[in-house]
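Example record

The entry below shows one chain as it appears in the dataset: sequence first, then structure tokens.
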Amino acid sequence: MRIVCIANQKGGVGKTTLAAGLAGAFAARGARVLLLDLDPHASLSHWFGLTDAPRGTYDVYQPGLALADVAHATPEPAIALAPAAAALATLERAGATSPGIGRALARAFEGASGYDVALLDCPPTFGVLMVSALAAADLLLVPTQTEPLALRALDGMLRTAQMVERSRARPLPAVVVPSLFDARTRVARDSLAALRARSDCRVWHETIPVDTRLREASRNARTPQAFDPASRGAQAFTRLADWIEAGLPQMQRNEWERAA
């Protein structure tokens, strides 16, 4: 199973939309997808209409429960979701007094089976939930809105990823995904150029565009591909999934070589 963490310490950059879009893209390729909603605000759970489930990601941090115990069916047969609950916020306080909680997800994935890809939608804050997701991941995607404030916030997320990478037994390839791109505006074009000019991070060569069809997909509890596969947003997510599938093995080799 490939584990992809979607994280940024700034909110409103398109993390949940990226999770839903990639889930639809991988499912359309025939993959079995597991979504984990780690944000107490539960945006991804609301997307798929799973807000009243008896168990969810909070329970993975409790002894004795596995991912299979908290995954629920969604309207799309190839996609399962472990929903979030407000109780996740209490784990941030528990992290200070519960040794090893940051490794809870990694341990849960060690015995997990039945899925090809797991997508972890993180809260927009640095804490035990984000750290545990980074500790478990094979790849970090950092959606970054193409506007100046989002670019300034990117530095903090990259530092967090580097800190977690140093503490785990293997490197963590990271890719910045330009999101909410509106080519009609000068600020978006200039911000994208500034992002691509950075030498301290790997940036996906395309963008996720602003697309009202993505909001419609959310309102209908479907992935962008299932709702409107011809939409610009759905097609962008499909190209990103193709790129991950083709490039992740090479990225992992390069990161191992860099760390050697």
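Notes for this example: The CA atoms of residues 211 and 241 lie 18 Å apart. Residues 2-259 form a domain with the Rossmann fold fold (CATH 3.40.50.300).
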